[in-house]
TrEMBL record:
<dbReference type="Pfam" id="PF01882">
    <property type="entry name" value="DUF58"/>
</dbReference>
<dbReference type="InterPro" id="IPR002035">
    <property type="entry name" value="VWF_A"/>
</dbReference>
<protein>
    <submittedName>
        <fullName>DUF58 domain-containing protein</fullName>
    </submittedName>
</protein>
<dbReference type="InterPro" id="IPR036465">
    <property type="entry name" value="vWFA_dom_sf"/>
</dbReference>
<feature type="domain" description="VWFA">
    <location>
        <begin position="76"/>
        <end position="245"/>
    </location>
</feature>
<dbReference type="InterPro" id="IPR002881">
    <property type="entry name" value="DUF58"/>
</dbReference>
Length: 294
């Protein structure tokens, strides 16, 4: 049951995201993600300026004058938001956590999909799939999806991206746009990542907090593993300690970079402090210029 305050926050973000989805962000989304193909619309008489390659020679022969076939873009596609809701995303040094950033970006993309009449669904997971919203359309479906994405409280703390990606492979038989959102501070997801990239149009959004690479010099600090619960007293004034933390994060990021390069997958790195809309618009416009589509 959502609290009254949380409901108000969800509604505010819903309205804000809808305005953005109907503006520049929505336009960038529409041109970046092409439809599934062309569908037949009608046969009509040829008019000056029409493409002669569209002439229907069978109808032309029967009618004694040229007719063409008209097609329209099949705009509808399926967008699946796969959101890591594990405890490590609860970290945030900028007044907003990685989890909040992931939820807000997911909401923006869901609204863009809905405005473009695409089916949109979501997978929310930790060490297991905790919530699955089957891709669909319609206002009631969208409202449910947004509430889940923005307000869901996970049952587990850990991360297993391989489980989430394998779930995508089992449930999504047709090619879809799969947007995977995580901090990618985990291991052993490489094989499933490559499998999904082969079958679907996979995009990775990496949520990264600035303090993960540049730990402040706070002296002795009691740290707790948000997923495992282990506690450790560390001296953040020690340069070797800070370098060690940064090296671990860098190693995880390098695994993602290498995988993405191998599979031809786009990686968009966002900080909770970022202005998401501008970052998303820039990415979508770059994607359009490269001609990436389903």
């Amino acid at each position: 049951m959502l609290s009254a305050e949380l409901l108000r926050q969800v509604r505010r973000l819903h309205l804000y995201a809808r305005r953005l989805a109907q503006g520049q962000l929505g336009g960038a989304y529409h041109t970046a993600f092409k439809g599934a193909g062309l569908i037949f619309e009608e046969v009509r008489e040829y008019q000056p300026g029409d493409d002669v390659r569209a002439i229907d020679w069978n109808v032309t022969a029967r009618m004694g004058r040229p007719y063409i076939k008209r097609f329209t873009e099949e705009r509808e596609t399926t967008v699946l938001l796969v959101v890591d809701v594990s405890a490590s995303l609860g970290f945030g040094s900028t007044g907003r956590t990685k989890r909040q950033a992931a939820a807000e970006v997911a909401a923006l993309l869901a609204l863009c999909a809905a405005v473009n009449n695409d089916r949109v669904g979501a997978v929310l997971g930790t060490t297991e799939v905790e919530r699955f919203v089957t891709p669909s359309k319609g206002p009631r479906h969208l409202q449910r999806l947004l509430r889940d994405v923005l307000a869901y409280e996970p049952l587990q703390k850990g991360t297993n991206l391989a489980v989430l990606l394998q779930f995508v492979l089992r449930t999504q038989r047709r090619r879809a746009i799969v947007i995977l959102m995580s901090d990618f501070l985990t291991e052993d997801y490489e094989h499933a990542f490559l499998q999904v990239a082969r079958r679907h149009d996979l995009i990775a959004i990496c949520l990264a907090d600035p303090y993960e690479l540049e730990c402040p010099q706070w002296g002795l600090v009691q740290l707790e593993d948000s997923e495992g619960g282990e506690q450790l007293l560390v001296d953040t004034a020690d340069a070797d300690v800070r370098r060690s933390f940064a090296a671990q994060v860098t190693q995880h990021r390098e695994v993602l970079r290498r995988l993405a390069a191998q599979a031809g997958v786009d990686v968009l790195t966002l900080s909770p402090a970022d202005r998401y809309v501008q970052s998303l618009v820039r990415y979508l416009e770059q994607r359009r210029r490269r001609g990436r589509s389903q």
